[in-house]
Amino acid sequence: MRGLGKAHGEASGRGFTSAAALAFVFSLSAHAEPNAAETPDVSARQLELRGVEDKIGVTQERARKLEEQLIDHAAARERLNGALLEATQRLQETETRAADIEERLATLTEKQEKALRSLESRRALIVEILTVLQRMGRRPPPALLARPEDILEAVRASLALGAVLPQMRGEARQLQADLSELMRLRDGVRHEQERLAEQKINLGVQRQRLAPMIAARQEALAQAQRALQAENERAQRLAQQATSLKDLISRMEAENAAARRAAEAARKAEEERAAAQAKLTEEERRKALAAPFKDAARLAPAVAFVDLKGHLPAPAAGPIVRRFGAPDGFGGKEKGLSIAARENGVVVAPCDGWVAFSGPYRSYGQLLIINAGGGYYVVLAGMSRTSVNVGQFVLAGEPVASMGDGAAQTAATIAIGAKQPILYVEFRKDGASIDSSPWWAKSDSRKVGG
After folding, report:
1. How do the pLDDT tens digits run along the chain, 450 residues long?
2. Which sequence spans correspond to the domains of the chain?
3. Contact yes or no for 339/322 (Cβ under 8 A)
4. Whose CB among 246, 311, 314, 435 lies 3.0–4.6 Å from 444's, allowing a Cys bridge?
């Protein structure tokens, strides 16, 4: 019994062991089958992950190339801006020289006409003086021993001429001085005419040089221009609805996306500049104010508009014909200043800023409004053509428009009665007109100062 029990126990132990082993194998098989089923999914996920990683690598490479292109574009933009500003400055200087020469030429011509009128008024006296001199030269003194009576006549004649000769001598000297002055004036007129002709040729060369630069700048903005075409059309519709410049600016920034973006950019730039300037030392702040337009690659004003007093360049060459605060002829006062610009003269942006409006507006002719930040706006009107778009950032001294030949009558030309083109300039702060005279650079104070 003990042997059977022992055998049975051993058999039972062996059976349990086999069953456990079998169960373990089944359990392994049960776990192994799902893993085998999941293997293709893991491979697919790995392949997908590799694809994503590859795409990330390609995207990063594209981003790197785009960053390089942006750097190249920024450098190209800086070079173009520098060349454009330099060419515009030379053109303005040439226009100023030509205007000075024309002024001197007008003065010389007036003096020449005055001298001619003076000589013409004394024609009879000059003829008399010349006749007497000729007769005296043809009739020498008589011989003393041949005819004494002739000596008597000669003495009497000499006594009579004695009283007249000093006057004749003075008139002869004055005639000589007048004739010499007339010759000098004619030489001066001829010389100034030659210089004017040279300056006009130089003007043509400068304009030819500037034209492709402006075209290149606008070509670089061609894509943005197409995107802004609808906005510009909307701006024209708004201009027809607006009743004043203040209303026009408000409508543009409220209803025109490009103008709204420009206003937002101006506001943001003002905040960033204020934060950056707060960190500057007094010495750094003085250096920034000393050269506010030095960086040609800037994408926002380097200095607040209110701090630019005494630094802004004149928008066009020419004398002031009406100033801020002068009677406007209708019982009111001028809200801006009017410049007698040259025919087809270039117009530059007097400050950094974003274009809030560009296009024809009522009787103003072509109108340009620049958002200078800090609630300041600069209005330019009376041009025949503008070369910038709404939302575009422009640099001080950058060409933005050109004058016509004065044939098109604008509000400014009608008010003044001018036959030449008139550029109207108005500064506005928080919706009201302000005197622009404190802002103009000293070199331009003769032209646009207060």
Report:
1. 344 344 344 434 444 444 444 444 334 344 444 444 444 455 555 555 555 445 445 455 555 555 555 555 566 667 777 777 887 887 788 788 778 888 887 888 888 788 777 777 767 766 766 676 566 555 555 544 444 455 455 555 555 555 555 666 666 677 667 777 777 877 877 887 887 788 778 777 777 777 777 777 767 666 555 555 666 666 676 676 667 888 888 888 888 888 899 999 999 999 998 888 888 888 888 888 888 998 888 989 999 999 999 999 999 999 999 999 998 777 788 999 999 999 999 999 999 999 999 999 888 889 999 999 999 999 999 999 999 999 999 999 999 999 988 777 787 777 777 788 999 999 999 989 999 999 999 865 445 544
2. 244-448
3. no
4. 314
Whose tokens are 């906005």? That residue is 231
Nearest to 440 by CA among 340, 308, 335: 308
Contact 408, 427 (CB under 8 A): no
Q: Is there a contact between 437 and 450 (Cβ–Cβ < 8 Å)?
A: yes
Q: Which residue has the tokens 């069953």?
A: 19
Instruction: Identify which of 87, 81, 78, 97 has the alpha carbon closest to the alpha carbon of residue 346.
Output: 87
3-class secondary structure, 282:
helix
Determine the Cα–Cα distance for residues 99 and 72; give it in Å rounded to an integer. Answer: 40
Nearest CA to 388 among 206, 213, 221? 221
What size, in residues, is the chain? 450
Domain 244-448 has CATH 2.70.70.10: yes
